[in-house]
Specification:
325 residues, mainly alpha, 2 domains, three-stranded antiparallel sheet, globular, transmembrane helix
């Protein structure tokens, strides 16, 4: 005899536990009306009542799962590295949210970062990584100052981002430390990065409509990276760390997305998402241009792409306005 889903009314396959159309639990199904005794045939009110209860249960389960994913107990200092400093989980999932006050958002971000660093002191795995990196940085810089810089030491310096300026270099070191700590302490790190990289694969689709924000996202990343490090091969580990952390953050809402939304309150969800994807790609592009001579390639290419992105955005806007008239 035929069975039907209580949620959407779709016919169920024999032995199915879930509806193939809506995914509802098939443990309670409707028997085909013609095969039931007359007194057992459910009326339309009974069907709607059962369907409504089932929908409420599913909504509660989904809401609980979403809340758990958004408010996990992961250490903010490392969960966020890849955004501001790049702190706080980068970005884009579907769905707009109300823009927050910029000053309040910055205060929340700073407090979250400070609290995360404090909690990191109680995480033995991450603490061991940080201590080992600090010792390595000091040792490498000491040997370099003494004129000792053989190939193995150069590789170690590259892997740990041991060299760099006081301010920008410290940020680059923080990114590398965050990446290494997450790879060691977070078992799901690689899978999350893989999911983020999968989002980058969809950029080619509909590129014409989002080329402006994409170019501007890439441009800002190039300029920011050049502020941290000069464009040479010794600094490409910083680019790699920033790229992977940003790709990981593409699967989450986070500080940077909210920060950009506060700066651009009129930007829609597609624009924000494209900016974030461009930001991620910018780090990979910076690593590529590091093979070219010169230390300021990121500034030059970043400014050119920023101008190009602005021009493309204006042209697309004028075309939309013209077509709407």
């Amino acid at each position: 005899m035929g069975k039907f889903c209580t949620s959407c009314g779709t016919a169920l396959n024999e032995g199915a536990k879930f509806c193939a159309k809506c995914g509802a639990n098939a443990s309670h199904v409707l028997e085909e009306a013609g095969t039931l005794p007359e007194q057992a045939t459910p009326n339309s009110e009974t069907i709607l009542s059962k369907a409504g209860k089932q929908m409420k249960i599913e909504a509660k389960i989904k809401a609980a799962a979403y809340a758990k994913s958004m408010f996990s107990e992961a250490t903010p200092a490392y969960q966020s590295a890849g955004e501001l400093a790049l702190p706080a989980e980068l970005t884009p999932l579907a769905g707009d949210f109300e823009a927050e006050n910029l000053l309040s958002l910055l205060k929340i971000g700073i407090k979250g970062l400070a609290g995360g660093l404090k909690r990191t002191l109680h995480d033995k795995k991450r603490l061991v990584v940080v201590i080992a990196l600090v010792i390595t940085w000091l040792l490498v810089n000491l040997l370099v100052s003494l004129g000792i810089f053989p190939l193995p030491l150069r590789l170690l310096s590259w892997l740990t981002a041991a060299q760099g300026s006081l301010i920008g270099g410290s940020i680059g070191k923080g990114l590398v430390a965050a990446l290494l700590a997450q790879l060691i302490a977070d078992q799901g790190m690689l899978q999350t990065v893989k999911s983020g990289l999968g989002q980058l694969g969809g950029i080619a689709k509909g590129l014409r409509g989002v080329a402006g924000p994409l170019l501007m996202g890439i441009a800002v990343a190039l300029i920011v990276t050049n502020l941290m490090v000069s464009s040479n091969l010794q600094n490409t580990m910083v680019c790699l760390a920033a790229f992977l952390l940003s790709a990981k953050a593409l699967t989450h809402h986070g500080f940077l997305r909210k920060f950009i939304n506060a700066l651009l309150p009129k930007a829609n969800n597609t624009t924000l998402t494209t900016l974030m994807r461009g930001w991620t790609l910018g780090f990979a592009l910076f690593a590529a241009i590091s093979f070219l001579p010169g230390g300021g390639n990121g500034y030059v290419l970043g400014i050119l792409l920023l101008l190009a992105g602005g021009l493309v955005t204006v042209v697309n806007k004028n075309k939309k306005e013209a077509s709407g008239e």
